[in-house]
């Protein structure tokens, strides 16, 4: 895409050739007509007769340029995969296989480049020889019509032919560049015409069909809202498929148990998470707990209703927290960087706060066991963390960020009971999450209920029960 954009930008500077070269040719032709009469245009007949060959080379140039760009993209994709997976390639001794794959992609690109160069030579030969043929045939016709070719006439005509020779030589090159730019524009157009992301996640500045409501307060919740999973059209393949009810839809996000079901919906959700308190979301598997958090994040399509959330991300409350969300997913997402960089996630280092987060998320013992401590790189080029360690690093990242809203998707399920107790005491009910709106999805209700202020129970995509823990106990629902 960057190469296509540069090609278009560079071509803009040469747009004057669209009128400059033809204008020079027209002016030179007028002077030649005054000097040689109709004989001056005899040579141009050869030029007209050569247009079919020029048209063939032009169409071939477009096809070759598309092939060159496609082969270049394929070669870059192979090299990118090779570089990213070089560690595993060395582990499994796949060097020769990947060398052959990379060389095959490179050979394909070279073949297309050879075709492009040969086609360019054809253009060059055609248009370099054209002015010479025009001069020779014009003089020959002038003499055959009984005119005397004097030295003055000959050299003046040669000078005029020389004037139009340069634009005639430049014009074909410019035409090829225009055709290549057209191919680049078509590729850019294909990219720009791709389906847009859903409106509710495209920008935090817009209201997206009134999906979000900002009433000026710090509320987080839903107002008679219903959601479904985002859906995209399935791409057609060459192989013929039997029609079915699900062929036309691919689900963009899975449900609680990891099974994609585009028919799942969150229905008529109306609740507000208490500001500055811990809310526990519980319920059976695939009841919509994860979906509830993803709906807040804008990862589900809104069917009706509104999401209640402050849209002023730059607003900072009295405790130094911005009106934004930090999220720890059930399947932790970590970058291939150091543990420290994953926790900071671009925020400036506050040493005191960072150390408090390490302690609260029970990472101190794990870091002491690593040779490089929190400088240890994780991922393909570093160590592999256990599921519990990944969950706690993701939790630490969400806690460290100075955000008012903290969404935690079952971080306790990946740790043992002792660590879960530590996380509850030092993190979930500790000073780092005090005065922050925390929404915790968990099955460990008995563990976290003593520190929870509000409870939401999901069932089959709807809110079955919700209220303060005190009220629910008074009603005998707990």
TrEMBL record:
Name a GO CC annotation attached to this entry. Answer: membrane
In terms of SMART domains, this protein maps to: AAA
Query: Record's Pfam families?
Result: ABC_membrane (PF00664), ABC_tran (PF00005)
What does the UniProt entry say about where the protein is found? Membrane
* ABC transporter domain segment(s): 244-478
Q: Which residues cross the membrane?
A: 25-53, 121-143
Protein name stated in the entry: P-loop containing nucleoside triphosphate hydrolase protein
Name the source organism.
Answer: Mycena citricolor
């Amino acid at each position: 895409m960057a190469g296509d954009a540069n090609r278009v930008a560079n071509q803009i500077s040469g747009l004057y050739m669209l009128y400059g070269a033809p204008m020079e040719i027209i002016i030179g032709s007028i002077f030649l007509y005054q000097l040689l009469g109709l004989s001056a245009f005899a040579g141009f007949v050869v030029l007209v007769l050569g247009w079919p060959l020029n048209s063939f080379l032009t169409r071939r140039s477009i096809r070759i340029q598309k092939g060159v760009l496609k082969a270049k993209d394929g070669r870059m994709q192979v090299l990118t995969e090779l570089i990213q997976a070089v560690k595993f390639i060395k582990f499994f001794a796949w060097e020769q296989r990947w060398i052959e794959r990379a060389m095959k992609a490179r050979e394909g690109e070279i073949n297309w480049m050879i075709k492009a160069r040969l086609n360019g030579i054809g253009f060059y030969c055609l248009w370099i020889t054209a002015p010479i043929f025009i001069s020779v045939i014009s003089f020959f016709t002038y003499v055959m019509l009984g005119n005397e070719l004097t030295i003055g006439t000959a050299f003046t005509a040669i000078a005029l032919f020389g004037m139009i020779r340069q634009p005639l030589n430049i014009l074909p090159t410019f035409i090829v560049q225009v055709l290549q730019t057209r191919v680049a524009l078509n590729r850019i157009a294909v990219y720009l015409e791709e389906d847009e992301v859903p409106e509710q996640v495209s920008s935090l500045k817009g209201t997206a069909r009134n999906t979000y409501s900002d009433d000026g307060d710090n509320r987080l919740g839903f107002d008679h809202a219903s959601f479904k999973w985002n859906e995209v059209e399935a791409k057609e393949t060459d192989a013929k498929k039997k029609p079915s009810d699900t062929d036309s839809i691919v689900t963009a996000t899975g449900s609680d148990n990891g099974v994609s079901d585009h028919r799942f919906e969150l229905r008529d959700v109306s609740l507000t998470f208490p500001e500055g308190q811990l809310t526990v979301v519980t319920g059976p598997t695939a009841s919509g707990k994860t979906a509830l958090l993803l709906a807040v994040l804008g990862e589900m399509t809104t069917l009706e209703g509104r999401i209640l959330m402050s849209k002023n991300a730059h607003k900072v409350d009295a405790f130094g927290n911005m009106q934004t969300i930090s999220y720890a997913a059930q399947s932790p997402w970590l970058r291939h960087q150091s543990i420290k960089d994953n926790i900071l996630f671009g925020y400036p280092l506050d040493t005191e706060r960072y150390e408090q987060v390490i302690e609260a998320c029970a990472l101190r013992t794990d870091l002491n066991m690593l040779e490089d401590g929190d400088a240890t790189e994780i991922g393909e080029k570093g160590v592999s963390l256990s599921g519990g360690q990944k969950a706690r690093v993701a939790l630490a990242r969400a806690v460290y960020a100075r955000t008012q809203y903290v969404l935690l998707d079952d971080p306790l399920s990946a740790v043992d009971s002792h660590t879960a107790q530590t996380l509850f005491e030092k993190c979930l009910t500790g000073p780092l999450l005090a005065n922050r709106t925390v929404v915790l999805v968990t099955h460990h209700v008995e563990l976290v209920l003593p520190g929870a202020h509000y409870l939401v129970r999901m069932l089959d995509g709807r809110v079955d029960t919700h209220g303060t823990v005190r009220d629910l106990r008074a009603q005998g629902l707990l």
